Amino acid sequence: MKQRALLLVNRHARHGQQRIAAAIEQLQQLDLELLEKPIEHPRQLPELIRYYRHQVDLVIIGGGDGTLNAAVDALVETRLPLGILPLGTANDLARTLEIPNSLPEACEIIASQKVRWIDLGWVNGKHFFNVASLGLSVQIAQKLTKESKRRWGVLAYAMAAIQVLWQSRPFRAEIRINNQDAIRVKTVQIAVGNGRYYGGGMAVTHDAAIDDRRLDLYSLELRHWWQMIRLLPAMRQGRHTALPGVRTLHGQKIRISTRKPRPINTDGEITAYTPAEFRVIPQAVAVLVPEEERGVRSKGFSG
After folding, report:
1. Can you give the pTM of this predicted structure?
2. pLDDT digits (tens, 9 = 90+) for 246-277
3. Which positions fall inside the DAGKc domain (predicted)?
4. Which domains are seen in the chain, by residue range?
5. Which residues have a Cβ under 8 Å from the Cβ of 257 and sit 6 or more positions away?
């Protein structure tokens, strides 16, 4: 029996418009029945997923991390499996799940029906897949434009970082892990990770996993902007956590407060403000993954 999929493609994602026809043809050849609903803005996703929840067996979303983030709350509610077509700029969730950017391969993974239940992060009522952060990364997100991401791809992140790096100023924050005593820090960035990758391929920590039932926090407590330069190469592998000026913490519940409300970036979009309560939500969403993925605890749709 054919699986029926709700196909939602962000036409404004970096590769959305030019690759949608190829995606439809590929998925149909793989014996999936598609209910296609093109979207003009990611905010349309939750309503569409909820509306068609009883008419489909899975949801396929084409777009980047911001598009996926817009859909996450509805995916939690409906419990529909998620198939990912990585059509965005960074595609960090796909990278974490070892889903390649190759469209034919991504379609094959969706058709294979191998499901992995992954954790989600949660902050002030909003779920996230990858990372929630405040400080430097928020300034970078504010600098990024659709035009720069479309033109430069992942390099747009590095270009935005260079523009804001020398202007960054430390701020004071209070961090509480699992209701323990508060830790007071002076930092330029705090990141709370659920998955492994964010920001175009940087790793939260070298051993972060999206189903380890914990949140990984790092705080960059640097005195000078140029200290960030030596950190950047190490951040690609998550090895920055062993360097001076980097504090690392882990837990299931985290509270961060600041003197003034500060914006929080979740999966590339500003969605919350401090004071902030973070939690890990174990096995919250089912995602279609490669069969050979390491450590996958997978099963078919009907398993």
Report:
1. 0.83
2. 899 999 999 999 999 999 999 888 899 999 99
3. 1-127
4. 3-119+283-299 (3.40.50.10330), 126-282 (2.60.200.40)
5. 173, 174, 274, 275, 276
Cβ neighbours, 10 Å, residue 60: 25
pLDDT in tens, 87-145: 887 899 999 999 999 999 999 999 999 999 999 999 999 999 999 999 887 766 655 55
What gap in Å lies between CA 213 and CA 287, rounded to an integer? Answer: 16
Element (H, E) at 63: strand 58-63
Query: CA–CA separation, 269 vs 114, rounded Å?
Result: 29
β-strands 197-198, 202-203 pairing:
antiparallel
Note the residue count of the chain.
303
In angstroms, the CA 269 to CA 273 distance is 12
